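## Example record

The block below lists the input lines for one assembly entry, exactly as stored, with component labels intact.
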Amino acid sequence: MKPVLYSYFRSSCSWRVRIALALKGIEYETHPIHLLKDGGHQLSDEYKKLNPMGQVPALVIDGHTLADSLSIIEYLDETRPDPPLFPRNDPHKKAQVRQVSHSIAGGIQPIQNLSVLKYLGDERKFEWGHHWINKGFQNLEKILQNTSGKYCVGDAVSMADLCLVPQVYNANRFKVDMSQFPIISRIHEDLNKLEAFKAAHPSKQPDCPDEMRE
Amino acid sequence: MKPVLYSYFRSSCSWRVRIALALKGIEYETHPIHLLKDGGHQLSDEYKKLNPMGQVPALVIDGHTLADSLSIIEYLDETRPDPPLFPRNDPHKKAQVRQVSHSIAGGIQPIQNLSVLKYLGDERKFEWGHHWINKGFQNLEKILQNTSGKYCVGDAVSMADLCLVPQVYNANRFKVDMSQFPIISRIHEDLNKLEAFKAAHPSKQPDCPDEMRE
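Predicted structure tokens for the full assembly:
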């Protein structure tokens, strides 16, 4: 049985996992979960059996149902080691990959995600999203001065890069001035040349509305 | 040279790392960083050389300066495997440990941390903190129904438990009704009986003000 990914085309967390699946050449079926229709299908009782957090993605694989994007990516890397998403046998460099990943997936994205913006209210949401992404990228740019090579940590694609690309997409949605961040911008451009990153893009997903296809 | 932990007594992220260091029996020096004085010492140029994110903790160990609590904990577990903070040779259970950890360290704490509350404004901050911890714990309680034994994942202490304890402390600060969460409450109580958890408590830290010692 093929793995099944419960996903939303524009969700950062779904996108990270799609890149990992594509890099590792894992074939899977996409089961779209619409985050906006009917108040959000991710909050239905049926979906919450798969992921009690009521968030995408969830991945059914190897007889398990996994949730939480970074946990899924680490699982995929442990069970399908090639190509690696972490430097092997280098705990310090692995810590750098996790630091960059968490600075985005823990330090930026959760503060500007859909449910937080909804609770915050329409009046502040654009300025709020802009503020936290801008501030997070100022910090990230400094971290990358120490860790980056061709990609976020050294010259090999890692979990950190899977977090970077969807966050840049959100930065653009919130009109963050990316010219402040030359390292992030350069890495983002290089990553987008890779086939796995192209295949995982929101515009290539079955639930992407026609008017948003590129 | 002893490792040096840059820490604030009441910071959740510092606290997680202190528990890991105590469990593994690693001796270290504490260098307190006051998060409130003079607008926050974590934002000084000097400290930001250690951690460009301007957040505690940072740990100087093995000739490296590490930042980000979960990355530090994973590093300590890779370089000092005993006692383990993850189930060994079980990628599915490891994914559960990370899922619980991220649901707190990525899904709750960042939305109610000091800088977010400050930016939000005094008027909404208490209700906001209460809302997100309460909501996060509702989800977490459901996850723990599937994963917990004596502790968050099975019967061994793991990284997930290191995240749980400081978050319950914050839940109490924000007057969350913990009687809604019998599993979280039971695990929290059991963890607090362990010596490493006692030693890492804010009230035992050198920078804890006298009036807050227990």
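Chain B touches chain A at residues 48, 52-54, 62, 64, 66-68, 70-72, 74-75, 78-79, 91-92, 94-96, 98-99, 102-103, 105-107, 110-111, 116, 119, 131-132, 139, 142-143, 146 (CB under 8 Å). Chain B has a mean pLDDT of 95.
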